[in-house]
Write a structure and sequence with these properties.
The protein has about 375 residues and is an alpha/beta fold. The protein contains 17 helices and five strands. It folds into two domains: about 180 residues, P-loop containing nucleotide triphosphate hydrolases (Rossmann fold), CATH 3.40.50.300; about 130 residues, Zinc Finger, Delta Prime, domain 3. Strand 3, helix 5 and strand 4 form a beta-alpha-beta unit. Helix 11 runs antiparallel to helix 12, helix 13 packs antiparallel against helix 16 and helix 16 runs antiparallel to helix 17. It starts with about 20 loop residues before the first helix and ends with a helix.
């Protein structure tokens, strides 16, 4: 667990009081636990890096901690959750090459040694605590078999079990599952809270770089932490380089630019969709900055500009586009969010996107 100036970066170590922001969600869950009216199934939804996993661990502590899960609690319940050794908490995430959540592991069989463990988790009473918590990360990636199994489990849950689904987009959950779960929305943090988070996370970081990362993170603490790493926080330079190249050479450079952008989202299958959407976020920030340049005075623009360190290239790009075209370009990028997860080779998505951007922004 990385800690700096008392800062907690490990999701397993969080309690409700150590999570910055999300006051409404924390208040709802805390009151529901205190009044013993917590729904047996929850959908915690919000963009990648918003804090869904941290909130799930904090909720598990709140349910079972005898002291009410204060910050840095040293009780057995909280310690085991931090160490990943709790027998009454199970965290499931995609592990297959396709990035899907499947029924494998839920029905014990000869070729599935882990199946008995999962089956017993749901079917047996808590071994150490008052209740059990079952968490699915990327629950929108369930295949049909697991979704049907989960639906039956939600309809007739054991009294001791709380099921938590973590998803980026609420609408991606099957309607039959969605209708039986209580939604908990996590929204991007306001700029003031992100600045507070950023200072706690990296007090020794150059203030200008810290402010750039705050803007690039778009209110998502997890994304800010990822972008602190050298490889991550220079990604916006790669996007700037790619868009400058596309602006200068137009469609001749299309395949080269698409390949350059695709390298940003190259990752293992379990998080490739989130990485690709982060690339789209950086593209959207570029187009957004170009639009702001046309409607704001210089001082105000530099205050809110994400790509301030390459402002000259951005201004040149903005000068070649009209505001209506930039708005259309932002819509194209948002559309790519929806169909990108269904594509095996996302370089094709980028090529199609650049083709549409080029036509819209008069690329040569």
């Amino acid at each position: 667990m990385k800690q700096e100036s008392g800062f907690i970066s490990d999701p397993k170590a969080h309690s409700m009081d150590t999570i910055i922001g999300h006051a409404g969600a924390k208040r709802y869950l805390s009151n529901a636990v205190a009044l013993q009216r917590l729904p047996h199934a929850l959908i915690i939804h919000g963009p990648a890096g918003i804090g869904k996993t941290s909130l799930a661990y904090a909720l598990a502590k709140l349910i079972n901690c005898p002291a009410g899960a204060p910050p840095h609690c040293s009780c057995t319940v909280c310690r085991k959750l931090r160490n990943g050794t709790s027998m009454d908490f199970l965290f499931i995430e995609p592990k297959t090459p396709s990035g899907q959540l499947t029924l494998s592991g839920w029905k014990p069989g000869k070729d599935d040694p882990d199946g008995l463990q999962y089956y017993r988790f749901v079917d047996t009473a808590p071994l150490e605590n008052r209740g059990k918590v079952l968490v699915f990360r990327h629950a929108e990636r369930m295949n049909a078999s697991l979704a049907n199994y989960l639906l039956k489990l939600i309809e007739e849950p054991p009294s001791y079990l709380v099921i938590v689904l973590l998803v980026s987009r609420y609408a991606d959950v099957l309607p039959t599952v969605r209708s039986r779960c209580a939604p908990v929305a996590l929204l991007p943090l306001p700029k003031e809270e992100m600045e507070q988070f950023a200072f706690l996370a990296s007090p020794n970081l150059d203030p200008n770089l810290r402010q750039t990362l705050v803007l690039l993170s778009e209110g998502r603490p997890g994304r800010y932490l990822a972008m602190q790493e050298e490889e991550s926080h220079t990604q916006h330079h790669t996007v700037a380089e790619a868009m400058k190249l596309f602006h200068q050479h137009g469609f001749i450079s299309l395949f080269r630019v698409a390949h350059l952008l695709a390298t940003l989202s190259a990752s293992d299958a379990t998080d490739s969709v989130d990485r690709f959407r982060s690339t789209l976020d950086l593209l959207l920030a570029w187009v957004r900055d170009a639009a702001l340049h046309q409607v704001m005075d210089k001082d105000l623009f530099m205050q809110h500009c994400v790509y301030r360190d390459v402002a000259e290239d951005l201004q040149s790009f903005s000068a070649s586009s009209d505001l209506e075209s930039l708005i259309k370009a932002s819509r194209f990028i948002c559309e790519a969010y929806d169909y990108a997860p269904r594509m095996t080779d996302r370089t094709y998505v980028l090529e199609l996107l650049l083709t549409r951007l080029g036509r819209t922004m008069r690329a040569r």
